[in-house]
Amino acid sequence: MSPITIITNINQLTKTKLAPVLPKKWLPQFQFGLKAYSLRTFHSASSNARQVVANPNTASRKSERLLANIGLAANLATAFDNLNLIKASSYVNCDHSDMNGLTAFVGAVQTRNGRAIPCLIETTYSDRLPGPSLTTSPKRKLALRQARAEERQLIGFTEHYINALQSLASRLGFWPKLVFDRGFGNKSLVTYLDAAGATFYIRLKAGRFVELDGQSIEVKRLVENDTIINLFGLKLRVVRSPKSRRATEPWYILTNDLTSTKAKIVKIYYHRFEIEETFKDLKHIWNLKRTRLNKPNSLKVILWLVSIGIASLYKVTKPTKQTVRKRHKKKRNSWLRQAYEQLQRASSLVLWGMG
Predict the structure, then answer these.
(1) DSSP class of residue 285?
(2) CA-to-CA distance for 67 and 162, rounded, in angstroms?
(3) What's the whole-model pTM score?
(4) Residues 23 and 75 sit within 8 Å (Cβ to Cβ)
(5) Residues 239, 266: contact at Cβ < 8 Å?
(6) At 285, phi and psi to the nearest 5?
(7) 124 vs 1, which has greater pLDDT?
(8) Is 13 helix (H, G, I), strand (E, B) or coil?
(9) Alpha carbon distance 339, 313 (integer Å)
(10) Are 217 and 237 within 8 A, CB to CB?
């Protein structure tokens, strides 16, 4: 694909798929947000805004209004859904990542091409802030820690994740299949998802106790590689993966999928690592490791805008395993980096000419 075609196709996608599903009153903010944050390296909320709006005061006000708009943050999910990247058969990897005092809980649809595409964004205050010290702690961190403490009195992390996942299912009208790493296998989440009819795959710690034939046993001591067990009063399944170069220790995968083959379940979990690579790209290609935002909604808006940009790149470049893997494995770039670099080449050609 010609680099210039990428720009043309993204413009067309924005006009036909994204803008029409948003309330008209928020279209100017949406268009400003796309220009300032979606496919642009992040420097700061104000700096990115000034790269789009010449007057510094106007740029600052536009940025503040955009990042404070809770209603638009919710509607950006609807715009993403109109790109039709999530099906009932899709697998959505779920994980969280700390971003300088705030935490993003992200669901990202597997592509099987090395990078998942974020399709669920929820944000809150980080639980990894340093202990308070009135003499040495920065004022920003103290404020974030206080806000986190107040929020935890109203809602815990697990309830926060459950609400976000239910919101995903409600807006789609169905439950995609959900894939989680260790740390998500608690009773509240497992029993909720099973009761809701959601299929899930959750990695367990080797020392986790389950019930087999009326006896409590660690999953690492299960004799079979594929065992029906009881946990939290539910009939579930634990699949143990074979060892490999990537996984020196086996994975113990808890699931309520009682029909798929063992090999398929292991493969489903293998592609969970796509979300970790996506987090790396968000922090390094988009430079979101630089964020110093104070409100969860600000991070939510920016992450949705970036996610819409990633999804748009995926739609217009149509990456395949062949295009990702044709080079020597040590020189391969992900489809996301390839698409981003194509976009930068296109921008250079528009600016400097075709010579």
Answers:
(1) T
(2) 24
(3) 0.92
(4) yes
(5) yes
(6) -70, -50
(7) 124
(8) helix
(9) 6
(10) no
